Amino acid sequence: MADFEIHQFLCLSDNYAVLLHDADSGVTAVIDTPEVAPIEAALEAKGWSLTHILNTHWHPDHTGGNLELQKKTGAEIIGPRAEQAKIPGIQKAVGQDDVFDLGGHEVHVFDVPGHTAGAVNYWFPNDRLVFTGDTLFAMGCGRLFEGTPEMMWTSLQKLMELPPETRVYCGHEYTQANAAFALSVDPGNTDLKARAQQVDETRAAGQPTLPTTIDLELRTNPFLRPAAPGLQKAIGLEGAAPVAVFTETRLRKDNF
Ligand SMILES: [Zn+2]
Questions:
Q1: What pLDDT is recorded for position 13?
Q2: How far is the CA of 23 from the centre of ligand 1 (A)?
Q3: Domains and CATH numbers, the chain
Q4: Model pLDDT for residues 65-109, shown as the tens digit of each residue
Q5: Which DSSP state fits 30?
Q6: Calpha distance 231→189 (Å, rounded)
Q7: Cα(170) to centroid of ligand 1, in Å?
Q8: What is the pLDDT of residue 249?
Q9: Separation of 59 CA from ligand 1 center, angstroms?
Q10: Does residue 1 have a pLDDT over 90?
Q11: CA–centroid distance, residue 81 to ligand 1 (Å)
């Protein structure tokens, strides 16, 4: 088992796909398949052969390339058990507490309902990596299309418990817009102000703002900070339960 080589690149307008390659086993996985052409181009540029597809949730901008890539490469498709009827070509269905091997790397599965009802995230504890799909974004979280705020808050708490140094790869480049919203509800957060400025510079240079880390999100992501007094005060919910603060924060983001 080697350390993973990791290659992240844009698909469609703002989706990310990520390739993981283990040189010893020859395993190459892609996390989500927004679009075939950029994934094929990335594989060819790296000289890697696709062996696995890991889907975080059923949305077409995360699974749309499944069947064509499977046909061309024979890659095995792994996805959420609770959404298997909607995951094109799924061969291995996984869910909460499942652990599987990917080229000698241990993968732990979390159920993270909220954005969709059956979404999963993939945590690689020994590689200090997590793939959060549209559940957790840099300074944001996914819209609640199929779940309740309570479900999403429970899902996010699973990610908050991961080791702080864990690198977080997300499904979209939404960071700059998320920062603007975060500043509106957590205006006194100095870590957030510094990060927002850094994100502006990174985007101005045309660079990705991801991956992030659990530590950075705990300090700057308003959806992980419903217990922060400054945030509670800014939205008029001082002393309220975390789930109530999370719910109000999500509602404000929907209308931002
Ligand atoms: Zn989605």
A1: 95
A2: 31
A3: 5-169 (3.60.15.10), 175-254 (no CATH)
A4: 999 999 999 999 999 999 999 999 999 999 999 999 999 999 999
A5: E
A6: 9
A7: 11
A8: 98
A9: 5
A10: no
A11: 16
184 CA to centre of ligand 1 in angstroms: 24
For residue 229, the CA-to-ligand 1 centroid distance in Å is 31
Q: Tell me how far the alpha carbon of residue 134 lies from the centroid of ligand 1, in angstroms.
A: 5
The tokens describing 10, both together, are: 């844009």
pLDDT range class, residue 59, cuts 50, 70, 90: very high
Query: How many A from CA of 172 to the centre of ligand 1?
Result: 9
Task: Tell me the CA–centroid distance for residue 60 and ligand 1, in Å.
Answer: 8
Q: How many CB atoms lie within 10 A of CB 99?
A: 11
CA dist 164 and 38 (Å) reads 31
Q: What is the DSSP string of 176-189?
A: HHHHHHHHHH-TT-
Q: Which residue has the tokens 């000289």?
A: 47
Let me know the angle formed at the C-alpha of 61 by 102 and 248, rounded to the nearest 5 degrees.
100
Amino acid (one-letter) located at 250: R
Q: Cβ neighbours of residue 142 under 8 Å, at least 6 residues apart? A: 114, 115, 133, 134, 135, 136, 152
Residue in the structure block whose two tokens are 């954005």:
115
Q: By percentage, how much of the chain surpasses pLDDT 90?
A: 99
Mean pLDDT (whole number) for 220-245 = 97
Gap from CA of 126 to ligand 1 centroid (Å) = 27
Tell me if residue 239 falls in helix, strand or coil. coil
Instruction: Please give the pLDDT value at position 239.
Output: 97
